[in-house]
UniProtKB/TrEMBL annotation:
InterPro entries: Surf1/Shy1, Surf1/Surf4. Keywords: Cell membrane, Membrane, Transmembrane, Transmembrane helix. Residues 293-316 have a biased composition (Basic and acidic residues). It comes from Rhodococcoides kyotonense. The lineage of its organism: Bacteria, Bacillati, Actinomycetota, Actinomycetes, Mycobacteriales. Belongs to the SURF1 family. It is found in: Cell membrane; Membrane. This is SURF1-like protein. It is a multi-pass membrane protein. The keyword Transmembrane applies.
Length: 316
């Protein structure tokens, strides 16, 4: 309960709110965002690897009334039909081999089928950001080898600039409305050497990227933030308890001693003894040996004196 009251102080309460909000963002926003990108990237790489070794199929086998299934993306198909002239659309703000570029999208009328958009490739801008002259698509019946791509979704509205209709994403619904057609959902991306093809758009690299490690890092941060807060709260609480204990000890008054029952002032003073009591110390081992030898020599001298007295006394 004391720790709870300690956390309710304004400074610590604000810090606790920040830590809880950060942990929430880590667990429910940042980590899922990175882990989701890792999942989608891994799924895309699997589809690309499968399409590399697969033979192309007629587009009628994968096309339905709703367009293409997402799991068929990157699949190689063969489409028969003809380009629809004067309906080219430029996709702006693209980057090809680290250079700004435009991608060219042209509607394609399938033989005995609906209209589908075809990404013919890219062109590089000239004189700054101005698009170059676009080579028109061939007319008449043709056969295309291409890969299926899903719609990118629409974001910003199309613009008419530099004599071309320009869009920011390949969204069949938005482009079809702008050119007066009704293409199916999804589009085709041409392989190399196809009729009407421009600069070849390479396949993405099948690299999972750093998204998994980033996601795990955000999870770790979400765990460490509350633990760090708990550590600092505990340390601060202990320091405050220690300081409070020292204050209590310092403010405690001295315990009064009990008065003597006898008034010592009325008692006569005892005279101080001036005699010095002799100190008694035991002799050391060396001293005991010396005394023993001295005693033996003394006894020997006495015995000699007795013998001499007896001898000379008889002669007299």
């Amino acid at each position: 309960m004391r720790r709870l009251k300690f956390l309710l102080r304004p400074g610590w309460l604000a810090l606790a709110v920040v830590v809880v909000a950060f942990a929430f963002m880590c667990f429910y926003v940042l980590a899922p965002w990175q882990l989701g990108k890792n999942t989608s990237t891994s799924h895309r790489n699997d589809l690309i690897e499968q399409s590399v070794n697969a033979d192309p199929v007629p587009i009628s086998q994968v096309l339905d009334a709703d367009g293409f299934a997402p799991d068929d993306e990157w699949r190689r198909v063969v489409a028969e039909g003809s380009y629809i002239p004067d309906k080219d659309v430029l996709v702006r703000l693209r980057v090809i081999r680290d250079q700004p570029a435009y991608e060219v999208v042209t509607p394609f009328q399938l033989q005995d089928g609906p209209v589908v958009l075809v990404n013919r490739g890219y062109v590089l801008p000239v004189q700054g950001t101005a698009p170059p002259a676009i080579e028109p698509a061939p007319t008449g019946p043709i056969t295309l080898d291409a890969r299926l791509r899903v719609s990118e979704g629409s974001s910003r509205q199309p613009i008419d600039e530099a004599g071309h209709l320009q869009v920011y994403n390949i969204a069949p619904g938005q482009i079809g409305e702008a050119v007066g057609l009704s293409p199916v959902d999804g589009y085709l991306q041409l392989d190399d050497g196809q009729p009407g093809g421009l600069g070849l758009i390479d396949l993405p690299q099948t690299d999972a990227g750093p998204y998994l490690s980033y996601g795990l890092q955000w999870l770790a941060f979400g765990i460490m933030a509350p633990l760090g807060l708990a550590y600092f709260v505990r340390a601060e609480w202990r320091e405050r308890r220690k300081a409070k204990g020292q204050d209590i000890v310092g403010d405690t008054p001295p315990t009064p001693t009990e008065p003597d029952t006898v008034d010592r002032a009325s008692e006569p003073a005892e005279p101080e003894s001036t005699a010095v009591e002799p100190e008694f110390t035991l002799p050391t081992r060396k001293e005991r040996r010396a005394a023993k030898k001295e005693k033996e020599r003394s006894a020997e001298r006495t015995a000699n004196d007795v013998r001499l007295a007896d001898r000379y006394g008889k002669n007299r």
